[in-house]
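Complex record, two chains
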Amino acid sequence: MSQQRYVDHNLIYSDQNAPVAANGTRKEQIFRTLEDWQQAGLAVHSRAVDPQFANVEQQNFHIHRQSAAVGWASPHYATAYDKDGVVRAATPSVGAYEPSDVVAF
Amino acid sequence: MVFRCIGHSSHICILEEVCMYSRTRVRALFICLLLGIHLWNGGAHAATYNISPQTEKKQAALIIKELSSGDILFVGGGDYRDLGIIRLYHKRGTEKHPIQIIAENTQIIGNNISYHYDMTGRDGNGVIIDYTAGGAIVANNVIYRVMGSGVTSTHSMSAYIVHNTIVESGYHGISRLNGVGIRMSQPDDTAAVIANNILVNNQAGGDLFQWEHVSTALCRP
């Protein structure tokens, strides 16, 4: 990989219109949207959608099976297990958790 | 007898420097390193310390408290959960004689990290990868409402930051440049993998990767 960075397959979302990415000591270069960033040839497999966490107020960041976070993580960089110890799917989900049925939504 | 401690990076660098001396002196320096005896660092007194998962919690806290400019702390590989929170990030030393924290096989996996707070308003990050050349792994963590950034890498190569859920960083933060999801803060934070993370509503500038001084072209896979 030499000295370069691999930055992709991330879900980046804000409901406050915050920029997706910035570069420079004082954020001289700002990418307002994921599309802007992708037009620069970066993060082409990333997404900007609400992952629909189970319950943010209760700090429950599990995802349901219909979440946009399901099934599009890069298998190449996937961990073997999720935070709960569940085996990652062949097409893993982004974030700390694989989707779960036992979690109340 | 005057020894010159190495600059940054690793055990290997120490050996390279030391190999200029005779074999006898190499042994002497090795013993010094193991025992943490004070060494000479180009004008600043320096001590070398070691922490491992077997280090007693009180002893580890004492070592961290005593760190000063020019010191080197080797953090051995292993599981530190039994040691509780080890706060190293305020230990910087001076610009000329920084405190070097050299960690091997660092893995921060499966933690719940929330409401980290810093009174200066310029820190309070969830995870800081500081001066770690060995490729720290930060995976499967949930980081929520920390005052600073979710994960910050500083002068560290080959960080592997995957499958983290990072939400509302910059909570009550006051720095315009902090409070992002994942921050690569220096030009030498290279060869990193940042993939499969969820970054939601991080506040200071939003959901944000920040590369200071570096062209975005370097981020290309």
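Note: The longest helix of chain B spans residues 23-35.
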